[in-house]
Amino acid sequence: MNVHDSERLSGLLEDAGYRRAADGDDADVVVFNTCAVRENADNKLYGNLSHLAPRKQADPGMQIAVGGCLAQKDRASVLDRAPWVDVVFGTHNIGSLPALLDRARHNRAAQVEIIDALEEFPSDLPAARESSYAAWVSISVGCNNTCTFCIVPSLRGKEVDRRPGDILAEVQALVDQGVLEVTLLGQNVNAYGVSFADPELPRDRGAFAKLLRACGNIDGLERVRFTSPHPAEFTDDVIDAMAATPNICPQLHMPLQSGSDRILKAMRRSYRAEKFLGIIDRVREKMPHAAITTDLIVGFPGETEEDFQATLDVVERARFASAFTFQYSKRPGTPAATLADQVPPEVVKERYGRLIELQERICMAGNAEQVGRTVELLVAAGEGRKDTATARLTGRARDGRLVHFAPGDVDGIRPGDIVTAQVTAAAPHHLVADGGVLSHRRTRAGDAHEAGQRPVTGVKRVGLGMPGLGRPAPQPALSSCGSGCS
Ligand code: SF4
């Protein structure tokens, strides 16, 4: 969500006449899009702002803006701690950034604008996409749940769902520009359809399954993923839609968080372990090769050894293809941060080690089963850090697994192209296909990547009512009378 918001910020600024600074160049405008979910987000932000302070002092015309969840949470205190910041904006008004930069420059005073409800659906804003072949598409923002460890509801607000027609139009616009894969984004995609922003649209519990099926009708759209579903609201019509729609990828990211019903209750997650496992069984029944991944928190307040053992048991039974595992740490502003029975860090660490060991074994076993299979890969840019050393390229299989492959004697494979290859080896977090590619399809996404073109979406905007857009042209040198006349 945060990465996609950054694409929107880039799109807004490009639309307003700004240009991306070359790598290594000093930028005239620096925007921090912050995330409060990650640990130490504030230390990182204020550390980065301190690094910029000497630059700002040397060049008062450069501008620094801070947005995102941390700005929404800290509001005016950002300026107390870093008075050299020019603009502070929140999660609900990212569209105001160009106007706020203009206003700060014009008024020579810092601008803080945080609003408490969504101003406009962010997906109507321009977006400068980072990838020519894969794109995020927001279907909703905010969340109506109240998980006690999570800061999202207080910073992103109540759920607002976008109109299906707008979503599909954005997907079509991306496909028209060569994009092959979209990931539908929402904090809780299974709730899609109960909080439409458009009052004319009736509540529709089946809206997400319908949306998936509609994506299946878009010619040229080869892969559809979505994140994140919520086990409490996951319904079988979504499984049926996934199984019946060929371009929906056989992949499901289903956050478990804990395998203990007692802890799930304390987290205010309204499903229980058996329900979770039942969903997974039904997904596997319809899609036997689906890669199911999850999120897990170890050491939530009050977690006993027995609770933790319940998590290990569910993990053993669920056989996740991979898991994002987190050691619980307090997030100020969340209900769980004030609970008395916090688990000592050394206990959390020890349990975490056991969980990782188990999950690594399961990852390895799952990946070993892939050896000998032929996989279709969407070639990726920048996902294989050792590719130069190994002369391999990297792609994602349809089920989301990362595969490093040797191109063999096939030349000219580009990010965005499609290849097939046979898996020759497995590791816990990736596969290797060293036998050369079996087929290579050049795609429009590959052409776009090669040409340095990135898709653009969203409503083209004009000025936002402030004088001038973009950094102003340099002023003519003052004459000796100091009035600017010559
Ligand atoms: S479902 Fe829970 S964890 Fe996910 S965004 Fe909503 S409150 Fe946070």
Automatic annotation (TrEMBL):
Keywords: 4Fe-4S, Cytoplasm, Iron, Iron-sulfur, Metal-binding, S-adenosyl-L-methionine, Transferase, tRNA processing. Residues 129-367 form the Radical SAM core domain. Its EC number is 2.8.4.3. Pfam families: Radical_SAM (PF04055), UPF0004 (PF00919). Residues 477-486 have a biased composition (Polar residues). It catalyses: N(6)-dimethylallyladenosine(37) in tRNA + (sulfur carrier)-SH + AH2 + 2 S-adenosyl-L-methionine = 2-methylsulfanyl-N(6)-dimethylallyladenosine(37) in tRNA + (sulfur carrier)-H + 5'-deoxyadenosine + L-methionine + A + S-adenosyl-L-homocysteine + 2 H(+). InterPro entries: Elp3/MiaA/NifB-like_rSAM, Methylthiotransferase, Methylthiotransferase_CS, Methylthiotransferase_N, Methylthiotransferase_N_sf, MiaB_methiolase, rSAM, rSAM_horseshoe. SMART domains: Elp3. [4Fe-4S] cluster binds at residues 143, 147, 150. Residues 1-106 form the MTTase N-terminal domain. Residues 368-437 form the TRAM domain. Signal peptide: none annotated. Binds 2 [4Fe-4S] clusters. One cluster is coordinated with 3 cysteines and an exchangeable S-adenosyl-L-methionine. Its main location: cytoplasm. It is found in: Cytoplasm. Residues 467-486 are annotated as: Disordered. Its cofactor is [4Fe-4S] cluster. Catalyzes the methylthiolation of N6-(dimethylallyl)adenosine (i(6)A), leading to the formation of 2-methylthio-N6-(dimethylallyl)adenosine (ms(2)i(6)A) at position 37 in tRNAs that read codons beginning with uridine. Monomer. Belongs to the methylthiotransferase family. MiaB subfamily. NCBIfam families: miaB-methiolase (TIGR01574), MiaB/RimO family radical SAM methylthiotransferase (TIGR00089). This is tRNA-2-methylthio-N(6)-dimethylallyladenosine synthase. It comes from Mycolicibacterium brumae. The lineage of its organism: Bacteria, Bacillati, Actinomycetota, Actinomycetes, Mycobacteriales.
